[in-house]
């Protein structure tokens, strides 16, 4: 019985986290965009406008559900649920601290990667169900984009997994810090099992993973449909893209999924490449900084700090770079990112064979 | 391909550095300054927003914003209504039976104004009425923040007389005219009799 209670509590906790994160990050995004453009952003609701997003969600909750007369009612109604649930379920496998993971599974990477692909189905349902040319165009673009970018993202994930030798996200985390169970070598030659810190992260264990992380980051922007890859939403040409016809709480869920997706891809990237919940501070001589800053609280702190930095970078990029054209988007994916991702994969294999087995 | 990818990253970084610079400069706001202040363009960096109802940009003294009439100084000469290119000023006048008084610059007032309406919805803000006014009673004020809920509220009424007063003045004028006519008739009659 307690077993199920914990399940529910975990589910509620994750949902609470997603909702809070969305509210805070929408506010942060509005402020960041304002500061970048020499504006002030929301200033009226509460001091410095900090209650703005709370007021927005209150407004969204009160709004009427409108289903267009010619829409496919079933698809239109369940699409937001599928979009949100796909992202929501992705959080299940992501570890927060050395002993804190909602569901420990030995194929975590594969699971997360598979479950977030389901979002594309939800988006296609939303676009098709709306029976609106803009929605359909947005949805078609979105699916083309997500399916294409899954290829480079998949290859860079595999190259990181080859270095870690595990699909379990928690094991990948463990092997990037002082709690490692396998031998970890900085740049492939210096044993740093007892030094830990930033030296033990995957990107520094095998430096070609830095390139892999950049590819992952670019492709993850495309995966969560954010600028400069926001063609599916493209406000200036498609109104709102696939969510044009949505109102009220349904729209809120699509919006929630978008921000949750940002955090999810940031967290997956942090876990695979940037040490996850491991501290960036190494043990230096008698100063055991890494030992001091490892634990449940510190784990949550580090993973949050890293993810929020990555999310901030996503916002920063959104408000700097202009949107790509459809053909440029595909060129970038197939002609630049995919070959580079392949190269990373080959280097990972060689790294594993030559450096680590020797 | 490597070169292309590198070039893409380099130019992207250029843009990102620019936005980061602006983000860093956002800790400071530009001072709210009027255009005629020295060093108006001095501060380039920082947030440009003027938080309007809380902060206001100083406006020039001679700006053309809202028309205002000091009705006590008006001699009801109708010049403003005549020069107005869009006919937004509507004045009615009643001759007084005697000199009413003097305006603040010493002009003699001989006319009452029961109606002095300016329709700001029609006004084109040319300011011609203020230049022709002999007593300078019609002026442009510095108030620019004027919004109303109904368009008829934009028809400003400056006349200070009530309808009853106006009716009384009309009556007085008619009586005076009648008296004068009677006096004139009497004088004419007397002249004829003298002949």
Automatic annotation (TrEMBL), chain A:
PROSITE patterns: COMPLEX1_ND1_2 (PS00668). Pfam families: NADHdh (PF00146). It is an enzyme of class 7 (translocase). It is a multi-pass membrane protein. Its EC number is 7.1.1.-. It is found in: Cell membrane; Membrane. The chain crosses the membrane at residues 6-28, 74-97, 109-128, 149-167, 199-219, 251-277, 297-317, 329-354. Keywords: Cell membrane, Membrane, NAD, Quinone, Translocase, Transmembrane, Transmembrane helix, Ubiquinone. It catalyses: a quinone + NADH + 5 H(+)(in) = a quinol + NAD(+) + 4 H(+)(out). NDH-1 shuttles electrons from NADH, via FMN and iron-sulfur (Fe-S) centers, to quinones in the respiratory chain. The immediate electron acceptor for the enzyme in this species is believed to be ubiquinone. Couples the redox reaction to proton translocation (for every two electrons transferred, four hydrogen ions are translocated across the cytoplasmic membrane), and thus conserves the redox energy in a proton gradient. This subunit may bind ubiquinone. NDH-1 is composed of 14 different subunits. Subunits NuoA, H, J, K, L, M, N constitute the membrane sector of the complex. Belongs to the complex I subunit 1 family. This is NADH-quinone oxidoreductase subunit H. The lineage of its organism: Bacteria, Pseudomonadati, Bacteroidota, Sphingobacteriia, Sphingobacteriales. The gene is nuoH.
Automatic annotation (TrEMBL), chain B:
The keyword Repeat applies. Keywords: 4Fe-4S, Iron, Iron-sulfur, Metal-binding, Repeat. Residues 63-94, 114-143 form the 4Fe-4S ferredoxin-type domain. The keyword Iron applies. This is 4Fe-4S dicluster domain-containing protein. It comes from the Bacteria. Coiled coil: none annotated.
């Amino acid at each position: 019985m307690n077993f199920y209670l914990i399940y529910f509590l975990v589910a509620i906790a994750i949902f609470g986290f997603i909702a809070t994160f969305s509210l805070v990050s929408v506010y942060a995004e509005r402020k960041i965009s304002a500061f970048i453009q020499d504006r002030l952003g929301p200033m009226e609701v509460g001091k410095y406008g900090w209650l703005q997003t709370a007021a927005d969600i209150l407004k969204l909750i009160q709004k009427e559900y409108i289903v267009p007369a010619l829409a496919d009612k079933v698809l239109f109604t369940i699409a937001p649920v599928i979009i949100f649930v796909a992202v929501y379920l992705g959080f299940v496998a992501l570890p927060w601290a050395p002993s804190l993971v909602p569901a420990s599974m030995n194929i975590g990477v594969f699971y997360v990667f598979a479950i977030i692909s389901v979002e594309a189905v939800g988006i296609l349902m939303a676009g098709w169900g709306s029976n609106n040319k803009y929605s359909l165009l947005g949805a078609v673009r979105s699916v083309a984009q997500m399916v294409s970018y899954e290829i480079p993202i998949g290859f860079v994930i595999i190259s990181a997994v080859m270095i870690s030798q595990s699909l379990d996200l928690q094991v990948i985390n463990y092997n990037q810090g002082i709690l490692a169970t396998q031998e970890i070598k900085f740049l492939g030659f210096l044993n740093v099992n007892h030094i830990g810190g930033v030296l033990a992260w995957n990107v520094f264990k095998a430096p070609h993973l830095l390139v892999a992380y950049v590819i992952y980051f670019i492709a993850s922007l495309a995966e969560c449909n954010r600028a400069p890859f926001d063609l599916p939403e493209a406000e200036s040409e498609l109104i709102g893209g696939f969510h044009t016809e949505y109102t009220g709480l349904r729209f809120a869920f699509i919006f929630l999924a978008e921000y949750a997706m940002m955090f999810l891809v940031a967290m997956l990237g942090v876990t695979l490449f940037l040490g996850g919940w491991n501290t960036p501070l190494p043990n230096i001589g008698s100063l055991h900084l890494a030992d001091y800053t490892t634990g449940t609280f510190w784990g949550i702190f580090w993973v949050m700090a890293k993810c929020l930095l990555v999310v901030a970078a996503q916002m920063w990029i959104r408000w700097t770079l202009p949107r790509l054209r459809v053909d440029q988007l595909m060129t970038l994916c197939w002609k630049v990112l995919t070959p580079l991702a392949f190269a990373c994969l080959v280097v990972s294999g060689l790294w594993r064979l030559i450096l680590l087995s020797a | 391909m490597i070169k292309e990818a590198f070039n893409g990253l380099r130019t992207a970084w250029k843009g990102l550095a620019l936005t980061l610079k602006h983000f860093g400069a956002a800790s400071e706001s530009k001072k709210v300054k009027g255009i005629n202040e020295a060093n108006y363009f001095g501060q380039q960096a920082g947030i440009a927003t003027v938080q309007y109802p809380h902060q206001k940009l100083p406006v020039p003294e001679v700006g053309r914003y809202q028309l205002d009439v000091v009705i006590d100084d008006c001699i009801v000469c109708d010049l403003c209504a005549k020069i107005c290119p869009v006919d937004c000023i509507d004045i009615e006048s009643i001759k007084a039976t005697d000199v009413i008084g003097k305006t603040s610059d010493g002009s003699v007032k001989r006319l009452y104004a029961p109606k002095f309406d300016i329709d700001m919805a029609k006004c084109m803000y040319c300011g011609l009425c203020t230049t022709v006014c002999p007593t300078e009673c019609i002026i442009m004020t510095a108030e620019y923040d004027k919004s109303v809920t109904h368009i008829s509220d934009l028809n400003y009424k400056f006349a200070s007389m009530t309808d009853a007063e106006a009716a009384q003045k009309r009556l007085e004028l008619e009586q005076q005219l009648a008296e004068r006519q009677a006096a004139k008739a009497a004088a004419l009659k007397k002249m004829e009799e003298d002949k």
